[in-house]
Amino acid sequence: MSYRRRLGSVAALLGAVLLWVAPDVSAGSAAATRAVTGVSLVNAATGRPLLGLSPLTDDTVLDPAPVPLTLRADVAARPGSVTFTLTGAHGTRTTHTDARAPYLWPLPSTPDAYTLTVQASTGGAPLSVRFTVAATATAAAPLDVLFVGNSLLGTVNHGSGEDTPALVRHLASAAGRTLNVTEVIHSGYTLRQTWDDGLVATALGGARRYDAIVLQEYSTLLATNPAAAGHTLLDLYAPTFARALKPGGRVVLFKNWALVDPSPFPTRAAATSAIDTNAAALSAALSAALRTPHVIAPIGDAFETLIAAHGASYLITPDGKHPNDTAVYLDAVTLYGILCRDSPRTLPDLYLPSPTATELRAVAATAIGY
User: Fold this and answer.
1) Is 331 helix (H, G, I), strand (E, B) or coil?
2) Residue bearing the bigger pLDDT, 187 or 9
3) Cα separation, 265 vs 268, whole angstroms
4) Best CA proximity match to 250, nearest among 23, 119, 28, 55
5) HSE on the CB side for 58, CA within 13 Å?
6) Could you tell me the maximum CA-CA distance found in the chain, to the nearest angstrom?
7) CA–CA separation, 155 vs 325, rounded Å?
8) In sequence order, which residues have a C-beta less than 8 Å from that of residue 344 and are 6 or more positions away?
9) Which of 103, 120, 175, 111 is nearest to 142 (CA)?
10) Rounded CA separation 281/265 (Å)
11) Mutual orientation of helices 268-290 and 3-14 as an angle, nearest 10°?
């Protein structure tokens, strides 16, 4: 089955979730009928998934956590119950059935290598993932990250002279981490135009592999034309993920903010709602069609929290679209937390006043589950 048809299958299943299009292709793949689509690690205190560690991928090593964590089964449709089976390398085996959403089970605290199998009572293929709970903190390996997008990622702040990917690398270095960054950024382009012009072909060719691929779509496309955004992701980019990602690597979908001029929506709130709804539908399509490990970076969510308190000009330049210096820092600390699997709360202020930077880091940390 082609990727285009897979997208149609998922969109048809989601029905009204997509605001602007409802393809009528029938579902057919085994992946599309999988009840359990992934396993997330949830901050037990807040109920939010830790986006740097969710979805949990094979061979993940979990250091002793600063917050209590819970395993959550992520489901495509609500089953009657979900059964977790956890087998340790030292011979332990435990089983737990949860009959109520959101289908949780505390993460084991005993250091061991585990295989977790999750089965929905409604049937379908079980989902299994291997991970290790470490006794002590492990040394963080260098990360290779590809950023693909346009000027929303490429805007340079005046404080340090860095765009968002470079600032993420700067912040990681300050935290003792190494990020090797590859940028494919072209102002004004959709991801489709970046693909069609061949700009990203070398980066996704497989000669270099990445721990994460960050994809940032044109500012208004996801809100106004989710079918186009979805076809670009599933038809063009997704077939490259197997060769371009390292084992355990993931895709990070950069969720844009609503512009000051919300047209064609009547309000920014309506535009934000469309972005949220269509991003969730696109994520579900990617999960069902390909089971690609991915996360939506809640950039727009963090924007809305701060805009509610300070107004749009606090983050958006006078052109009504691009991030100002404050917003570039916000984007960078949010992406740092996801890519480095770490809370951004203790990162340095860099070029911002300490009260401002502290507030931005707190908003970013909350948005990504810390």
Assistant:
1) helix
2) 187
3) 7
4) 55
5) 7
6) 61
7) 9
8) 171, 333, 334, 336, 337, 361, 364, 365, 368, 370
9) 175
10) 19
11) 120
Burial of 355 by CB count in 10 Å (0-12 exposed, 13-18 middle, 19+ buried)? exposed
Contacts of 282 (CB under 8 A, 6+ apart): 222, 226, 229, 230, 233, 253
- Bridge partners (DSSP) listed for residue 74: 38
Distance (Å) of CA 167 to CA 156, 236, 303, 327: 9, 28, 18, 12
Spatial CB neighbours of 103, under 8 Å, sequence gap ≥ 6: 72, 73, 75, 81, 82
Q: What is the pLDDT of residues 95-134, one digit of tens each?
A: 999 999 999 999 988 999 999 999 999 888 899 999 999 9
Give the C-alpha separation, 7 to 329, whole Å. 34
Which one, of 297, 253, 300, 250, lies nearest residue 275 by Cα? 300
* pLDDT score of 59: 86
CA quadruple 357, 360, 365, 366: dihedral, nearest 10: 140
- β-strand partners of 67: none
Find the helix or strand (DSSP H, E) in which 84 lies. strand 82-88
Q: Report which listed range, 28-37, 146-155, 288-297, is most confident.
A: 146-155
Measure the CA–CA gap between 179 and 55, rounded to whole angstroms: 21
Distant-in-sequence, close-in-space partners of 310: CB < 8 Å, separation ≥ 6: none
Inter-residue contact 355 to 361 (CB < 8 Å): no
Determine which of 1-15, 274-288, 292-306 has the lowest per-residue pLDDT on average. Answer: 1-15
Show the CA angle centred on residue 252, arms to residues 297 and 234, nearest 5°.
120
Q: How many helices (H) and strands (E) does the chain have?
A: 11, 13
Its pTM surpasses 0.90: no
